[in-house]
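Trying the structure run again after the queue cleared.
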Amino acid sequence: MASPAFLIDGLQYSNWSEALFRQVREGGLDAVHVTICYHETFRETVANLERWNRWFELYPELIRPVRTAADIEAAKREGRTGIFFGLQNCSPIEDDIGLVEILHQLGVRFMQLSYNNQSLLATGCYEADDPGLTRMGRQVVKEMNRVGLTIDMSHSAERSTLDAIEHSERPIAITHANPSFWHPGLRNKSDTVLKALAASGGMLGFSLYPHHLKDKSACSLASFCEMVAKTADLIGVEHIGIGSDLCLDQPDTVVEWMRNGRWTKELDYGEGSASAAGFPPQPDWFRDNRDFGHIAKGLAQVGFSPRDVERIMGGNWLAFYRRAFEPAAAAPAARTSHAG
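Done. Tokens:
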């Protein structure tokens, strides 16, 4: 008997509520990678985790925490959506490498080494110069590998991303970005990065955030799916999935927190408008969690087989999590070599 297909979203930063939990179930998602940090300190991140513990208590028929691929499989059997956590910045480890293991123990499974700016670990994609991983960054990569906290370089600059791929003993992820050959946004990734990512066994999650899309909110489903097909030709279908970057029900003021945190007194909106920040409308074919089926149909229309559609919509992420989330002692010893 064929194994069931999984639907997994590689990243969201929505303003979660009972209504969204019900929407996720209506959309049939088996798991969602939930952002719980942009610029928060360790204690603030713990408070965000505490909020999620209350939601797990209040809505056990809808959602459950997951820490392993086996937990995601269990969530599917139970008719619930598995929730696992990620950090879009390294701010919660502050300057203490010991907090890497603590955060993993608390259920965090992804951490970006930098958001848009230079961090203690790596360079963000908005900086003019990118010297690559810092001394602390190399040590943190080693510790993340040891405990099973997956490296995410979605917002990082090119040299830092290539350094992370090279120094990591485990495959890394770019959970929410698109190829720059399709749309040259600051956050989108070059062919060089994508090939190195795939050669090391890593994963790319395609973003549906309009600033990352060709033609932004007017992007067509056909254009998006043709881009997916070209990326599959470039790096292999086994290395791609969806990382929607949905920001549902968020007030526009949250963009200021995402872009500015506490590091500047001036407004800096990055890839959005220089004069007014806000969440752009989603494309009409992907408005929310109930529209993943449109992507699956679009992928079939550009020539993907039913099996490959299943892989892109969740199967590849599940296979990646099986390798990525376990402590080093349980991790496979071998990995494919880096691209030269």
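The two ends are 40 Å apart (CA to CA). Worth checking whether this holds up in the mutant runs.
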